[in-house]
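INTERNAL AUDIT FORM
Audit reference: QA-55
Scope: verify that the stored structure record matches its stored sequence.
Auditor: D.O.
Record contents follow.
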Amino acid sequence: SVSPDGRFALANGESKLTLIRLDQPDTAWRLLDENVRVERIAWSQDSSAAAVAGDSRVTLWRNLDKQASRLDLGLPAEIGSITAMAVHPDARSVAIATKGSVYYIDGESKLVAQTGDASALLFDGADLFLEDRSSDQVLRIRHYGDSAEISLLAGAAMGIDDPVALNLFTSAFIFLFCGL
């Protein structure tokens, strides 16, 4: 998995997680973790942190351009397969989606929404955005850390068909990618 700015890559092989610096003349490799099974990787928007899900936990790797530090976050016991994940800009928390649920994890897990099939999550300021393929909707979740407020941004009635990804252009524009 390559970071959004192209400076880093995370590679997983033989149960080892390796950080690769791609922006240096001599590619630098650094072992971050051993005995890990990686299910999903998500990067912060500024590429300074990455979340790695696997083995019933999410590990946040922060300060990747300096001396990387790790923060282990537990997952709810009932969690199934993770379908989407996003790193909060503060690099202290994540949002994860499973088939049917979206959680905000900042040391403890909080169920913030019941959904169908979320395959993309995106933090922007105080908002968490998600796209739900099963209902052809893009939703905004405000106050995801405590009492979540969910609102519809776009849906089938507005011409949305099979949304598959979200990307932030600026804090005022969100690009939505739809399937064919």
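Auditor finding: record pair retrieved intact. The first strand starts at residue 8 and ends at 13.
Action required: none
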